[in-house]
Structure formats: C-alpha cells, structure tokens
Design brief:
By secondary structure, this protein is mainly α. Helix content is 52%, strand content 6%. The protein is elongated, with a radius of gyration of 20 Å. 24% of the residues are buried.
Length: 172
C-alpha cells in the first residue's frame, strides 16, 4: 500500500564533494536535517489539501495530525535515511472500541499525541471505499512537487555542510 517516489537529483555534485570531506557522523546528521526539510515541504502541501475538506464544526482535524517522522528502524537496518509523512492516530477504527466508548464519543475528542483527535477516517478519504471515491491528499502532495522537495534538500544540505566544514576548520 506504500508508494515510493525515487528521482535523480541534479546539481548535487557540490554537496557530495563536501560530504566526502566530512566524517560519517557529520554526513548523516546533515543529510537527516536536509531530508527532514524536504519532508516538511510534502507535509505542508498535504496539510493545505486536507484543510480544504476538514470540517471546522467537528473536534477532529486531519490536517492537524499530518506529521513527518524519521524511520529509525529503516535506518538501523540499512543505514539509509528515510522520513515518512503520514497521519497520526489513523490505525484505530471505532468498531474496535467498546460500546461505552462509542456512546460517549470519547474517540472523537483529541487525545495526547494527536492534536487533531482520532482521525481514523483519513484512509477512507485517501484511498476511498467501494462506496466512496478516493480524494487523495498525501500522494499528490508527494507526487506534484518533487522539484521543490529536492531543491529544498539540496539547499539545506549545502548550507549544513558549509557550516559543518567551517566548524571543523575552527577545531583543527
């Protein structure tokens, strides 16, 4: 169910040259910083799209629950940096709750860790059902602006490596 987007980044030669001059820890820290900035561009586009259909009268909000997260398990397994953009609290269905919880509508009230409440229904909006047509907001956010994402990664990666090289030169 997970779509991956891959692309070649042109103009990254200067960053890779600078990264080779740095140590392993500096490289990974800098690229993690730059990649997070790129994921934040996707998150912003997804929030903007989700705001168009979020109902202000309800206590839940999908756009408030859209976050970017570092994939620590993937990093430990492969050594590569990966960020995921997704919706918090999207795994619990109301049908899995007790009758008492359903009756009190507690599952609709915001919980700690999910500022927009429990928004399990984001999957129905993103992927659709056999009765409802999909109205995706996450996938188009990633697919429609790869140039902006890669430009952001390159910009912040170059800036970070420049600062790191200056710091290293001061130490030596």
């Amino acid at each position: 169910m997970s779509d991956q987007i891959t692309a070649d980044i042109e103009g990254i030669a200067t960053i890779s040259k600078r990264l080779r001059a740095l140590g392993e820890d500096y490289r990974k820290k800098g690229m993690r910083f730059a990649t997070r900035k790129g994921a934040q561009v996707i998150r912003g586009a997804a929030k903007q799209k989700a705001d168009t259909f979020d109902d202000a009268k309800t206590p839940t909000s999908i756009s408030k629950n859209i976050v970017e997260r570092f994939s620590n398990s993937y990093y430990k397994r492969t050594g590569n940096i990966k960020f995921r953009v997704g919706v918090l609290g999207g795994a619990k269905k109301p049908s899995a709750l007790t009758a008492k919880a359903k009756a009190s509508h507690k599952y609709l009230k915001p919980k700690k860790g999910a500022p927009g409440g429990i928004t399990y229904y984001w999957r129905y909006k993103e992927f659709g059902t056999r009765f409802v047509q999909p109205d995706p907001f996450l996938r188009p956010a990633a697919e429609n602006n790869p140039a902006e994402v890669f430009a952001t990664i390159a910009k912040h990666g170059a800036a970070w490596t420049g600062r790191a090289i200056k710091r290293l030169n001061k130490i030596k």
